[in-house]
Design a protein that fits this description.
Largest interface: A-B, 36 and 39 residues
Number of helices of chain B: 1
Distance between the termini of chain B: 46 Å
Keywords (chain A): Membrane, Translocase, Transmembrane, Transmembrane helix
Low-confidence stretches of chain A: none
Order of helices and strands of chain B: H
Distance between the termini of chain A: 53 Å
GO molecular function (chain A): copper ion binding; nucleotide binding; P-type divalent copper transporter activity
Low-confidence stretches of chain B: 41-51
Structural class of chain A: alpha/beta
Largest sheet of chain B: none
Oligomer: heterodimer
Radius of gyration of chain A: 36 Å
GO biological process, one term (chain A): copper ion homeostasis
Number of strands of chain A: 13
Strand content of chain A: 5-15%
Strand content of chain B: under 5%
Helix content of chain B: 40-55%
Shape of chain B: rod-shaped
Protein name (chain A): E1-E2 ATPase
Radius of gyration of chain B: 20 Å
Chain lengths: ~525, ~50
């Protein structure tokens, strides 16, 4: 038994697009190259255009009908009407206005024809509008879209424009056609109305914003930064950035070890690791990972400086700063920050570094270049060490979470748009216009990887670029409509030129937005 | 057929708006006609109708 398998929809649409191009291209070439216009060429154009305008453009017609059933006169309705107008008028001209005669020629004009004859045919316009419409319907859905929320101002404009674009175009088509008929220039009325539809059909004012946002978010994810969709417009407006230890402070790092003669380094590290985990001091506890299998300890005692004393096996061991332990460090061990001691002797010394991240000054300078005022907000006791040598405008020591929130609120009340960079869960993050969480994604703002302050300027710049690209795309699409539609309605451009400009602008806007991904 | 009364209302509004714009355009065209350049009767030398 034979099995009939329907082609997958994607295959059918591909076949349709290829067929439309195959049939439409000769029509276009015949129309724009007069020397090729052999006697009765227009009948060839009619034969080739008929399947393009009907079967080829069927997905557009179907989408238009579905839209009308919902009461929506969107781009599909405009496109379908443009195809129907171009094809239908040409048919009428061929059969009833003398365009089917052997003398018919088709001059190449950029401006709309003002000739007295009504025998103009527009088969090439029908195939270009249908072909571009099909191609855009096929490729635009494959481009990643991300429709941002209401907090993204360009998205609001795009949605508003998208809602009114179709109805305004249809009304303008009516007005243009009415005007030229009223002026007793029906030969201008047809191409002018058609040019309005043709230029408007593929001008996707709704494409610029979601494509730019999706491309920007994809780019951010590739760099390890999380940019929330609301971050993009906020980053464009931010003028002040509040920094703190979450960004500028580097975690404690053990940078050197010296061992006394007769002591195995492995023994010293094992003892240090066994004691370090019991100290509340961050510099001492940083040694906790020094050995994979530290020995077990008993008789623990921790003093005020965080030094730890204990017994392991038969040994009395201790770890801490030499002064706190009351021991003399042999000259051979240099001047370590921490020492490990057993049997009354210093066995090893450790150099521990902490403090500001080495890239902090460069990051602050970069933030300045972005036009931001860097404000340091941190506990009073470490404000000096963090701010030392940094090009920060104001140092505002704040005692606790509530004081930090108050500082951010005051900055905003003074008219600043404030970004706050802080650890996840910090209260003053939520008080910011743009929260930048270090070490965690932020739904509303930007999430930076921990220990990488150098990622901050890039993330802010990307967030600004997303907004900028979306706004430029929207402005180009709307600008093309605002200029193109009146020019077309005035009968100043040929419908074929209009049919080429429309998809060209849309393609340019989408391709420009996709540059954000690189 | 449109699926809901709100869809019908929207379509009806659209048709009325298009009709109004067309009518307004027509009136404007009639007013502007004396000021507009006359249609060109010159057709390309390669052929066509002369009226």
């Amino acid at each position: 038994m034979a099995t009939v398998t329907a082609a997958a929809p994607a295959d059918r649409e591909w076949t349709r697009l290829v067929t439309v191009i195959g049939f439409g291209l000769p029509v276009l070439v015949l129309a724009v190259v007069p020397p090729l216009q052999y006697p009765y060429w227009q009948w060839t154009a009619l034969v080739l255009t008929t399947p393009v305008a009907t079967w080829g453009a069927w997905p557009i017609h179907r989408a238009a009908l579905r839209g009308l059933r919902r009461g929506d006169a969107g781009p599909d309705v405009v496109t379908a009407l443009a195809v129907a107008w171009a094809y239908g008028w040409s048919l009428w001209a061929m059969f009833f206005a003398g365009a089917g005669t052997t003398e018919h020629t088709h001059p190449v004009e950029l401006l709309a024809p003002r000739a007295s004859v009504t025998a103009q045919i527009y088969f090439e316009v029908a195939v270009v509008v249908a072909g571009a419409g099909l191609a855009l319907r096929r490729y635009l859905p494959r481009v990643e879209h991300h429709d941002p929320g209401e907090a993204f101002p360009p998205a609001r404009t795009a949605r508003w424009a998208g809602r009114w674009y179709g109805p305004v175009t249809l009304c303008l088509t009516g007005a243009a056609t009415g005007f030229w008929c009223g002026a007793e220039l029906p030969t201008v009325a047809v191409p002018a109305g058609l040019a309005v539809l043709a230029i408007a059909a593929p001008l996707a004012v709704t494409e610029a914003v979601p494509v730019a946002v999706a491309a920007g978010l994809r780019r951010a994810a590739a760099t390890g930064v999380v940019v929330g969709e609301e971050a993009a417009p906020a980053a464009a407006a931010v003028d002040t950035i509040v920094l703190g230890r979450a960004l500028l402070h580097r975690p404690v790092a053990v940078t050197g070890i010296t061992v006394a003669r007769g002591t195995a380094e492995g023994d010293a590290l094992a003892v240090a690791a066994a004691l370090a985990g019991h100290s509340p001091d961050a510099r001492i506890s940083a040694l906790a990972g020094a050995a994979a299998f530290p020995p077990s300890v008993s008789d623990l005692a921790v003093d005020a400086a965080g030094s730890v004393r204990a017994t392991t096996g038969a040994r009395h061991v201790a770890l801490g700063p030499p002064a706190a332990l009351g021991v003399e460090v042999p000259d051979a061990l240099g001047t370590p920050d921490l020492v490990v001691v057993w049997d009354g002797q210093v066995r090893a010394g450790f150099t521990v570094e902490t403090g500001r991240h080495p890239g902090a000054a460069a990051v602050v300078a970069e933030l300045r270049r972005l036009g931001l005022i860097p404000v340091l907000l941190t506990a009073a006791d470490e404000a000096d060490s963090l701010a030392d040598g940094l090009d920060v405008d104001v140092v505002l020591p704040a005692a606790g979470p509530a004081a930090k929130v108050a500082v951010v609120r005051r900055l905003r009340a003074d008219g600043h748009t404030v970004a706050v960079v802080a650890g996840p869960g910090a209260a003053h993050l939520e008080a910011a216009d743009l929260p930048v969480a270090v070490g965690a994604p932020s739904v509303r703002g930007i999430g930076l990887p921990a220990g990488a302050p150098e990622a901050l300027p890039g993330a802010l710049r990307l967030a600004r670029r997303i907004t900028g690209t979306a706004e430029i795309g929207l402005a180009v699409a709307l600008g093309a409509a605002l200029v193109g539609l009146p020019v077309a309605a005035a009968g100043l451009i040929h419908p074929l030129l209009a049919a080429v400009v429309g998809p060209g602008v849309t393609a340019a806007v989408v391709l420009n937005a996709l540059r954000l991904r690189r | 057929m449109p699926r809901s009364t709100s869809a019908v209302r929207r379509l009806a509004l659209l048709v009325v708006a298009i009709a109004l714009c067309t009518g307004a355009g027509w009136q404007l065209g009639r007013l502007a006609e004396p000021a507009l350049p006359p249609p060109s009767y010159d057709l390309p030398a390669s052929g066509g109708h002369h009226h």
